[in-house]
Design a protein that fits this description.
Layout (H helix, E strand, L loop, with lengths): L1 H21 L10 H12 L7 H8 L1 H25 L11 H9 L1 H38 L8 H15 L9 H25 L14 H16 L8 H5 L11 H30 L7 H5 L3 H37 L6 H21 L3 H29 L6 H31 L8
């Protein structure tokens, strides 16, 4: 009997290993440190960088630059915590964000704390990228051919989705590294175009940095909303452990060393993208800047078209990086809980359905960007700003009132304030614009 059980467990282990070798996150552990650099850069720098000058125009110079800098420091710190905690349990790798949650809060509670928030961020970002990709393609077309027949955004979203249907079939993170590299380079380039074109255009006549609010209430709500916009510009934490899982690890060279090297390079890239765009864009256009700085620039037409094309390439890569952990969750559930055999057909059908659903929501719900600002407040802030700190306090147990303990509590309090304030501003924006929304527009 005991021999049978032993044999069973060997068989189970073999089965388990076969499944792990098939699942996207644990399939390939051969990534180099620079893979982590461009995956993280692609995940972190969204097309939202182009709206940073607009956020600054609602916050003003002092609060705006402070929020931008504090967010950069806090999220780099919480990212470092996650990289450190990946292998804190001997002989075990916490390959997914929810596995880290389970280690801290228990099997069931850990899942319920992390997975819903992670899904809101990842699926929400995929849908926003569908819309961004479609709109940017439309802008390329309209800029280069102003007299052509107008094509509805819905069709452009379908065209953008068709590329993702194909790339979504790449089995794991390492197989999309070329796409991710292209996306990371493009994000740097279109950020550079945004600020160099601003300098070339010159300071707007009668530039003003006064509040752009119509009244006090408008000012307060837009201040909250802009805080959210800046905070959500740093939302790469939802894929960081999944990226680290692809890096090899040994007692001599644990995965955290190459991973951290990649993260630092990515964060330098983030600073190079964010700070010049935000500060130069606001300095040159003041409170007249649009919510997408490329709209404010308009000329030269070829350069703006090129920048929008780069945005398209970037959001293709961004979509794949954020979709991979979702594919992993879906495939894990189907193979482990529903007992489907791992196969190409299972992967092909599930991923195609996912891309189709994100495309449909993007087409049907035109105000999804504002909606993500609302939902994102409840998910971006915790997953990037304070859940890593809570887990660190729970697992590492630093001494009360020590420096580490105080830093973590400061991050938790700031993150909580962000989680409460930013959705208020976003909800008001949804209500104000609701009268102009048309579904399927």
């Amino acid at each position: 009997m005991s021999q049978d059980q032993g044999r069973m467990s060997d068989e189970d282990l073999a089965k388990q290993k076969a499944i792990d070798d098939w699942l996207p996150i644990t399939a390939s552990r051969k990534a180099k440190w620079y893979f982590s650099a461009f995956h993280n850069l692609t995940a972190m720098v969204g097309a939202g960088v182009l709206s940073l000058p607009y956020a600054l125009s609602h916050l003003g110079w002092g609060p705006g630059v402070t929020a931008l800098t504090l967010s950069w420091i806090i999220t780099l710190y919480t990212l470092w915590q996650m990289v450190e905690m990946h292998e804190m349990i001997p002989n075990k790798r916490l390959d997914r964000y929810h596995e880290l949650g389970q280690e801290a809060f228990g099997e069931k509670l850990g899942l319920w704390i992390v997975v819903p928030q992670q899904l809101v961020v990842e699926v929400g970002t995929c849908i926003v990228y569908m819309v961004t990709g479609g709109k940017s393609l439309k802008k390329v077309h309209d800029t280069l051919c102003p007299d052509c027949k107008d094509i509805r955004t819905s069709y452009w979203i379908v065209i953008f989705a068709s590329v993702n249907f194909v790339i979504a079939q790449c089995p794991n993170f390492n197989s999309i590294s070329a796409v991710s590299l292209a996306a990371a380079v493009m994000s740097m380039v279109y950020s550079m175009i945004a600020w160099t074109a601003s300098i070339h255009k010159g300071v707007a006549p009668n530039v003003s940095y006064a509040s752009r609010a119509k009244d006090r209430a408008d000012g307060v709500f837009n201040f909250f909303s802009a805080l959210g916009d800046i905070a959500f510009a740093y939302a790469g934490h939802n894929v960081v452990l999944e990226i680290q899982a692809t890096i090899p690890s040994s007692p001599e060279l644990p995965s955290k060393k190459p991973m951290w090297k990649g993260v630092v390079v990515a964060y330098i890239g983030v600073a190079i993208c964010y700070f010049p765009v935000a500060i130069i864009g606001y300095y040159y256009f003041g409170n007249t800047v649009e919510d997408n700085i490329l709209i404010t620039l308009e000329r030269p037409a070829w350069l703006i078209a090129l920048a929008n094309l780069f945005v398209v390439i970037h959001v293709i890569g961004g979509y794949q990086v954020f979709a991979m952990p979702v594919f992993d969750m879906m495939e894990t559930y189907m193979v482990k809980s529903l007992k489907f055999p791992p196969s190409f057909a299972l992967r092909f059908i599930s991923r195609t359905v996912y891309v189709a659903l994100t495309m449909l929501v993007g087409i049907c719900v035109p105000f999804f960007g504002s909606l993500l600002g609302f939902l994102g407040g409840f998910a971006f802030a915790p997953t990037s700003y304070f859940i890593p700190c809570i887990i660190w306090l729970k697992l590492k147990k630093p001494r009360k009132f020590s420096l580490v303990w105080i830093i973590n509590w400061v991050c938790i309090i700031l993150g909580l304030m962000l989680m409460i304030l930013s959705p208020i501003g976003a909800l008001r924006n949804i209500i104000l614009s609701a009268k102009n929304y048309r579904f399927f527009s």
